[in-house]
C-alpha cells in the first residue's frame, strides 16, 4: 500500500482552509477599498457549505460541546460571495483580524507537519 505523506486527509483539509482564508481576506480587502463608495454593496464570504462537505470527507467529529456546531452556520447552498449592504469599516477590520488569526494558526500547524516530516527524513532537529 502506497502512502502519500503530503496528501493525507488532514493536510488536504489544512490546504483547503488556507485557500478559504485567502478568499475571505480578498473579500474583506475589496470591502475596505470600496468603503467610501456609497453604491458599493458589501461582499461576504460564507464557507459553511464548504466546511460541511470537507468535514464529511475528513470524518471530523464533535467531541466537546465547545467544538464547532454545523447548526451555527447558514443553510445549504449559500452563495460564497453574497452581497450584504453597505460597508462598516469597524466590522471589516474585526473580521480581517479574526481571519488573519485563523490563517496564521493553520499555516503554523501545516508548517509543523512539514517540519516533522523533514526531521523524520533527515534526522536533524532545527
Task: Describe the structure using short key phrases.
mainly alpha, two-stranded antiparallel sheet, 126 residues, 3 helices
Characterization of this structure:
The protein is mainly alpha-helical. It has one domain. 55% of the residues lie in helices and 3% in strands. The chain has three helices and two strands; from the N terminus they run αβαβα. A two-stranded antiparallel ribbon has the order 1-2. The radius of gyration is 18 Å and the shape is elongated.
Helix content: 40-55%
Quickly count the helices.
3
Largest sheet: 2 strands, antiparallel
Give the overall silhouette: elongated
Mean pLDDT: 78
Give the secondary structure arrangement, pairings included.
Layout: H1 9-33, E1 43-44, H2 48-57, E2 82-83, H3 89-122
Helix pairs in contact: 1-3
Task: Produce a short descriptive summary.
This protein is mainly alpha-helical and 126 residues long.
